[in-house]
Amino acid sequence: MIEIKSTRVRAVIDELKDQYMEADANCRPWIIGFSGGKDSTVLLMLTWIAMQELRDEGTELRRCVYVVCNDTMVENPVIEEYVTTVLFEIGKAAQEQHLPVQVVTTTPQLEDTFWSCVIGKGYPVPNNAFRFCTEKMKIKPTSKFITDQVVADGEAIVLVGTRLTESQQRERSIKRHEIKGHRLSKHPLNPNTFTYAPIKELMLEEVWWVINAIPSPWGFDNEILYKIYLDASADDYECPTVVTDDSHRSCGQSRFGCWICTVVKEDKSMSSLIQNGVSWMQPLLDFRNKLVENRNVSELRCSTRRNGQAAVDSTGHNLGNYTMEYRIEMLRDLLKVQKKVQEEHSSVRLITSQELIAIQVIWFRDGNFSTTVNDIYNEIYGYSIPNLEIGLQERLILERSCKDPSHFQLIQELLALQKSKVLLMRKYGLQNDLDEQLDRYVKKGGEAC
To answer: Which end of the chain is less enclosed by CB atoms within 10 A, N or C?
Structure first.
């Protein structure tokens, strides 16, 4: 048993043991949202230690604990690499220690990823008034897992690493949902789901004490996490004084999120990482800053939204989705940044092949058949990716059947729309897509075959 010298931390572990042993008809599973940050790390560490102690005391561990990591697919690459490594170690250690702990990673649906929305559909990048990313990339994937687990087990308990002293907003949120006299609170979004905040009373200094003074129960080196925070600490962050030996200096409380986040005015953690030697991230920061600068440029926005609704303010400024030309420019710039970064870190991938195909599908649906994703990828990388063109036999038949070359092109475009439907989860609307493409063709003066 690990000796815990802090009475307040010891109390949290004892409470976790008591709550774990609470009599449940179905042994409601625990779901721990793990981001790899300091708070979720401490939450999992103390939960793990509580389970170890119960096991060593001869208690049967019947309640399953799911460690759920939400991968937005645009995570800070430094954190993403760290979290991937940690999750592997957690899964391996759980098996070796015979603990009922399972690691789960959730991702957004293909049509909901950041690049599918911004480069594909032309959504303006998020700001405080338009934060589509939170719903599509974080809430939906995690809620789906929770809902699926609730269906399987009847109810579930979500353990959260929020603390009262973290921020006034977090404190209000915790107190708003808690049931007085009870540890569990009703989940604000998911029915038959409860939340539990075991470390809500811990101070920031105590969080860092746990990380620095208690060995990781899954055998990982917490000094790596400490170093990441140290490198990402901006000058204006308040740093707690956490000293367990002479090698520990003060460390900041920087927040890590998506490297492309445009909601914050300035990405201080990424800037600090660059200043502290992670210079290969500079192209990412430059690209992110460019997206912020171009967000409200009228010439880069359409006069209508995707649903056709007018989007022009009283001054004539366009407020609709991004123009196709700008979406093409963004993809070209993103691939250039990716290629540049991969010269030093070949494992870094800023956009997936699936997203590239999804973007092409969306561009087809929006009537763009001239500049393809394949063209842009070839231009930047010098080799091709799979495209959606019809086969040689089909093309020969069409060419013989259509007298006008434009008719052949039209049918190719309609077939591309039809084929693209199988790539995205939302398969409705095909008839509308075909009708719209025919309308666009007719307006250009074409005639049917």
So the answer is: N
**How far, in whole angstroms, is CA 33 from its chain's centroid?**
13
Distance CA 46, CA 49 (A): 5
> Angle at which helices 430-443 and 405-420 pack, to 10 degrees?
160
d(CA 333, CA 340): 11
CA distance 73 to 350: 8
At 192, phi and psi to the nearest 5? 60, 25
SS3 call for 30:
strand
Exposure of 429 by Cβ count < 10 A (0-12 exposed, 13-18 middle, 19+ buried)? exposed
pTM for this prediction: 0.78
Nearest Cα residue to 150 out of 4, 30, 271, 327: 30
d(CA 220, CA 89): 7
Q: What is the pLDDT of residues 24-59, one digit of tens each?
A: 767 899 999 999 999 999 999 999 999 999 999 999
CA distance 310 to 246: 63
Distance CA 283, CA 286 (A): 5
pLDDT value of residue 23: 74
Question: Residue 315 to residues 12, 303, 311, 312: CA-CA distances in angstroms?
Answer: 57, 12, 11, 8
Element (H, E) at 158: strand 156-159
Which residues neighbour 233 within 8 Å (Cβ) at sequence distance 6 or greater? 239, 251, 252, 253, 254, 272
Please give the C-alpha separations between residue 293 and each of 262, 266, 296, in angstroms, as whole numbers. 10, 12, 8
- The answer to whether 327 and 356 have CB atoms below 8 angstroms apart is no
**C-alpha angle 350/353/354, rounded to 5°?**
110
CA dihedral for 233, 236, 237, 243, sign (positive or negative): positive
* Residues of the chain where predicted confidence (pLDDT) is lower than 70: 1, 25, 165-181, 234-255, 383-449
b/e map 300-320, b = 16+ CB within 10 Å: bbbeeeeeeeebeeeeeebbb
What value does the CA radius of gyration of the chain take, rounded to a whole number of Å? 26
